[in-house]
Amino acid sequence: MVIESELPEPSDIRNAIAVLFPLRLPPTAQEVVDPLDEVVADLGHSVSDGHRLLIDAARTGPEAVQQALRRYLDDALQDGTEQDEGEETP
């Protein structure tokens, strides 16, 4: 710590040693907002079943999201394959 004055002001000393003390955090809000509920609110009427599937999985954790996303993609790919098989070739 270096104080650039031979006669430092109390504020200079306080600023120089501030890094040694823990931060003073503001009091937390009494109402904690669930970020996933905020996502649903932001999506509004455009929230899909796929959105809900992933948001519900997110409440469990990252592994649940990975599994849900894999199932979602597998289902979408399977549906696409079934549609391709049902089409007639010219």
Strand content: under 5%
Element-level helix/strand string: HHHH
Low-confidence stretches: none
First-residue to last-residue Cα separation: 81 Å
What is the radius of gyration?
28 Å
Average pLDDT rating: 84
Give the overall form: elongated
Number of helices: 4
Described by strand count, sense and barrel closure, the largest sheet is: none
How much helicity do the residues have? 55-70%
Structural class, from helix and strand content?
A: mainly alpha
State the total count of DSSP E strands: 0
Would you give an account of this structure?
By secondary structure, this protein is mainly α. It contains 4 helices and no strands. Helix 3 packs antiparallel against helix 4 (62-86). The chain starts with 9 loop residues before the first helix and ends with a helix. The mean pLDDT is 84.
Short description:
The chain has about 90 residues and is mostly helical.
Please tag this protein with its features.
single chain; mainly alpha; 90 residues; elongated
Topology:
Layout: H1 10-17, H2 35-43, H3 49-58, H4 62-86
Helix pairs in contact: 3-4
